[in-house]
Amino acid sequence: MIDLEKLQNSFKKIFKRNNFPRIYFSPGRINIIGEHIDYNGGYVLPAAVNLGTYAGGSRNNENIIRLFSLNYEKSGVIKSPIKNISYKEEQNWANYPLGVIKTFQNKGFELDQGIDIIFYGDIPHSSGLSSSASIELATAEALKDIFEFRIDKIETAKICRESENNFNRVNCGIMDQFACSMGEKNKIILLKSDTLKYTLVPFNSKNHSFIVTNSNVSRKLSDSKYNERVAECNKALKDLNKKIKAKNLCSITPEIFADNRNLIENEAHKKRAEHAVMENHRSKLAGSALANGDLKIFGNLMYQSHKSLKDKYEVSISQLDTLVNLARKQGALGSKMTGAGFGGCTVSLVENKNIPNFIENIKKEYQKKFKIEPSIYPIKISKGTHRIK
Fold first, then answer.
1. Chain-centre distance of CA 270, in angstroms?
2. Is the backbone of residue 339 left (phi > 0), alpha (psi -120 to 50) or beta?
3. Closest of 22, 135, 26 to residue 78, by C-alpha
4. 156 CB-near residues (< 8 Å, 6+ apart)
5. Which of 148, 211, 242, 268 has its CA 20 to 30 A from that of 382?
6. Residue of 205, 206, 200, 163 whose CA lies nearest to 183
7. φ/ψ of residue 284, rounded to 5
8. The whole model's pTM is what?
9. Active-site annotation holds for 112
């Protein structure tokens, strides 16, 4: 967490302003189960967390957008005219907020003045905790508040997803943006990703916490491989629809899939489809287990999810597999990779009294094997995007 006074003073210094900005916070998210199925129409169980993106914003008297990140100070102030915003490689991180502004404009929300925004994020870079959705929602919240755009939280999430799909060319589903926007304290979201119907499931265990462990392996392949997996699922669905006419992979039951899996011609595509169908089934079981307070069943489903992500979807790596195996060895009720994969983090459900030993032993064993120290965060499930000052 950043000192808000420091953020405000940095805003005044960087943009040479006399006024303090309004301050917003948008969380990152963990996905506890339901990985890689939001773009297949399935059930997912994400939650907003207490790591995220802070944004300080204010109108300026120029027809220009000026963006600055305290995480990328060497990049300096990124500038763009209000009109004709375009994606440019050299804009790097700023393409995410610029894409949101452009998408708002495409929807008819016009900026009558320029805007200055300063950002600071405490989500570890390329960790799989959705820093991209977090900065998108922080930008959207600033635009809505400063320019008085009337739009609800779900529509805001849709706009941010559209921005990432079309402006940043990442074929993500709605889960990340939805979780960052709609999260609530101590509530896990059971979301049907194709209809956006959702239930908030309380997580009130006084004896257990979710622990995020960062492998500190950057997810360098995640965007390209993510788009590749989306295409593979679409091809699998096309093969299946020669006979069964399903809306998406997650509308297919495990029984129907078992009877028709041989319609899928490519073996890799067959494995991707199997993961999507079974992960959706696991998500529904996990939602019921969580609602009933059965954390043992819930945790076991997390382990099953990781095995499928490793063997069927092939998005895990040795470091993530090791962290999951070490978590099991340390007595975690459940553990799995979270996010797109190919690096990033695991999420584990750990008994509170075991957390100190869990952290100490995971760090020691992981560092011994990979010569890298993992970063470990006991996280809190928190409120979605909001103005804080």
1. 26
2. left
3. 135
4. 137, 140, 141, 144, 177, 181, 385
5. 148
6. 200
7. -65, -40
8. 0.92
9. no
pLDDT score at 223 = 66
Amino acid at site 21: P
Structure tokens at 125: 């870079």
3-state secondary structure of 196: coil
Neighbour tally for 16: CB within 10 Å: 7
The residue count of the chain comes to: 389
CB within 8 Å of 349: residues ≥ 6 apart: 208, 209, 210, 211, 295, 298, 299, 302, 332, 333, 334, 335
In terms of Cα–Cα distance, which of 76, 90, 82 is closest to 14? 76
pLDDT in tens, 30-74: 999 999 999 999 999 999 999 999 999 999 989 999 999 999 999
DSSP helix/strand/coil, 169: coil
- Give percent of the chain with pLDDT exceeding 90: 88
Mean pLDDT of 248-263: 98
At 342-364, the pLDDT tens digits run 888 999 999 999 999 999 999 99
d(CA 160, CA 134): 10
- The helix, strand and coil proportions of the chain, stated in percent and rounded to the nearest 5, come to 45, 20, 30
Record the tokens describing residue 91, joined without a space: 């804009």
Nearest to 333 by CA among 362, 360, 296, 359: 296
Query: In angstroms, how far is the first alpha carbon of the chain from the final one?
Result: 15
Determine the Cα–Cα distance for residues 315 and 312; give it in Å rounded to an integer. 9
- CA torsion angle 277 279 284 288 (round to 10): 150
3, 122, 145, 176: the active-site residue: 176
88: its two tokens: 């440019």
Enumerate domains of the chain plus CATH numbers: 4-204 (3.30.230.10)
User: For the chain, how many helices (H) and strands (E)?
Assistant: 11, 12
List all residues 6 or more positions away from 222 whose beta carbon is below 8 Å from its beta carbon.
126, 128, 339, 340, 341, 342, 343, 344
Residue 81's H or E segment, with its range, is strand 78-81
Separation in Å, CA 28 to CA 14, 128, 169, 184, 315:
26, 9, 20, 12, 21
**Helices 153-166 and 175-182: crossing angle, nearest 10°?**
150
Which pLDDT band, with edges at 50, 70 and 90, does 218 fall under? confident
State yes or no: pLDDT of 125 exceeds 90.
no
